[in-house]
Amino acid sequence: MAPFDRPYPIDHLRLATEGFGTLRLDYAWEGRRALFPGNPQFGGGEERVVMAIPGQTVGEVLLQSSKTHKLNSGSAGWTFASILLPKGWSAIETVEQWEKQPRWIVVFIGANDLLASFGIVGHAPPTEVETFRAQYGELTARLRARMAPDSPPTQLMVATLPDVTVLPFLQEIPLAADNGSGEHYPAGTKASAFLIPFRSHFEAEEVLTPDDLQGVRQRAADYNSAIVDIARAGGFTVIDMVKVSQRLQDDPAFSSPASPYFSPDLNHPSYRTHQVMANAVLEKMASIADVPVPDTLSVADTPLPSASDLQNENERVDALMHLAMQGLETGPLPPKLTFRFLAEVAAQGGEERVGAGVIYTMIGTEGLPIPITNHEVMRLCWHVRAPIAAFYGNKETEFFPSRQIEGRFGLAFEPVGNWNWRRFELGGLVTPDDDVNFGIYTRLEWRMLYAEASSRGWLFDRFEAGLSLQFRTGRPGRNGN
Fold first, then answer.
1. 338-473 in CATH: which number?
2. How many C-alpha atoms does 197 have within 13 Å on its Cβ side?
3. CB–CB of 389/360 below 8 Å?
4. What burial letters (b/e) apply to 382-421, b meaning 16+ CB within 10 Å?
5. CA–CA gap between residue 284 and residue 224 (Å, rounded)
6. Does an H or E element contain 462, and which?
7. Domain ranges of the chain
8. 238/134 Cα distance (integer angstroms)
9. Which are the contacts of 455, defined by CB distance < 8 A and separation ≥ 6?
10. What ranges make up the beta strands (E) of 299-356?
11. CA-angle at 249, arms to 299 and 109, nearest 5°
C-alpha cells in the first residue's frame, strides 16, 4: 500500500489526548481529509503490500472503487478506499495490477460482514452466508492466481473469524435501564460501550438481546465453516483465530472497557493483540517452510495506546467514539448533511408578532457534529421558516400570510446521546419583506416543546412558545444522536 503517514482521515488519538483544539473546531478540521482525499498512489514495486481497507466487507474488497458509486453508502469503507486505492480500482484489482507475484498471502477478512450485524458498518447489512461463501471463494481464487507459479497453495493462508460478541465495545446495559416506557430488557442485553455512559433508556434498535447475540455467533460459525471448506478445497492453510481469541479471553480484562487488548475504540486490536496474531501467522509460516519459529516481533517505535492506556482521557474518548458512530450517518464517513422538517403551533407576543396564534413550517439542513466539551456537540444549521396560518384576537384567520418569511443561520448546541431531546440554538436571521431586515434569534427545544425570542434589529421584538413536530433524516436515535 502507498506509504501514507496517516491514512485514517481523523487523528482521534491526538484529539483524545490533547483536547478538541482552538475554538473547539479541530474535529471538523481533521475531517477535511475524508472530504478531499487527494490522489493516492500504489507502489507497484513494493516488496510487501497490505490491502487492509478499514470498513470493507468481503464483497467490497471485490467491487468497491471510485467507479462504484452505488456502493458509496454501503459502508464506511468507501471513504478509506477513495483515500488509499488508485482511482477506478478495487482492492483485488489493485493486487492484480501489482507487478510482483507474491509467494505468501495472508487473508483475514470478514469481520466487517459480522460487525454489520451491529449496525456499525454504515448502511451495510450482514452478508448472507451463501453470498459470503461465494465472495470469499472468488477472492481467494483471484489471490491464488496472482501467486508465484512455484508457490504451493499452502502458502495462501486464511484466518477464521473470532467471536465478535465479546468485543469490549459491547457492554451489558444496567439492569435498571429500560426502553423509555418502563419495560426492561433481558439480563445480558448489550449496547455500545460508548452509548451506555450517556443513557438510562435504550431503543430496541440500540440494544442486542441474548437471542440477538446468539444469532451473530451462529453467523460467525457459518462464515467460519465456509472459510474452512474453501481452504480444504483449495489446499490453503487455515489459521484458527477463534482459538487465539479464546486464549486471550482467559484474562478477565479482555472484554472490559479498559481492555489492554484493544485500541481505545474497543473494537480494533491493540499492538499487544496484533503481536499475538502476528506470532500465530509466523508460527504457521515457519511450520510450512520447515524453519525455526522467528523471535517475537520487536517494537521499533512506541506502540499506539490501548484502551487501558487512555483511562485518564476516558470521557473524551467516549465523546469522540460516540461522534464517530454518528459520523457513519452524518459525516465525514461519508459526508452527509442532516435534514430537518418542522411543523409548529405556537402563541406569539411582542411588537412584531404575526398573530396571537400561529402555525409555522420550517425546513433546513445541519452540518456534522463538532465536540465542544466531553458531553456537548455543536452543529452549524441553516433554516427557512414560513407562517402557514395566523390567528388574530378578533377571531379572524389569515392563511399563508405574506410577511415574516425568515432565513436563519445559527449554531445549535446539544448533549451527546441524551435520551430526551434538548437543544439550544443561537444565530442570525433575515426577513425579506418590503424592506429586508436583519436580526437575531435564540431558541430552546425540549422534547416537543420549544420557546424562542427573535428580532428584526438588535432588540427582541417577538416572543413565541408552542409545540413542535420534527422529522429528521441522517441522524439515528430518538434525539438524533
1. 2.40.160
2. 17
3. no
4. bbebebebbbeeeeeeeeebeebebebebebebbbbbbeb
5. 18
6. strand 462-473
7. 12-330, 338-473
8. 18
9. 352, 439, 440, 441, 461, 462
10. 338-349
11. 70
Per-residue pLDDT reduced to its tens digit, 231-267: 999 999 999 999 999 999 999 999 999 999 999 889 9
User: Do residues 26 and 53 touch, judged by C-beta distance below 8 A?
Assistant: no
0.85 surpassed by pTM? no
**Whole-angstrom distance, CA of residue 154 vs CA of residue 235:** 6
DSSP line for 2-56: ---S--SSS-HHHHHHH-S-GGG-HHHHHTHHHHS-------TT-SS-----TT-
Q: How many residues does the chain have?
A: 481
For residue 262, list its beta bridge partners.
Answer: 269
Contact 437, 333 (CB under 8 A): no
Q: What SS3 class is residue 439?
A: strand
383 DSSP assignment? E
* Torsions phi, psi for 342 (to 5 deg): -125, 140
Map grid coordinates 448546541 to a residue. Answer: 413
Contact 386, 407 (CB under 8 A): no
**Distance separating alpha carbons of residues 454 and 63, to the nearest angstrom:** 52
Tell me: the pLDDT tens digits for 442-456?
999 988 899 999 998
Strands (E), 186-328: 190-192, 207-208, 237-239
Distances (CA, A) of 449 to 3, 226, 273, 353, 427: 53, 53, 49, 19, 19
Q: Which percentage of the chain shows pLDDT scores above 90?
A: 48
Strands 105-107, 156-159: pairing kind: parallel
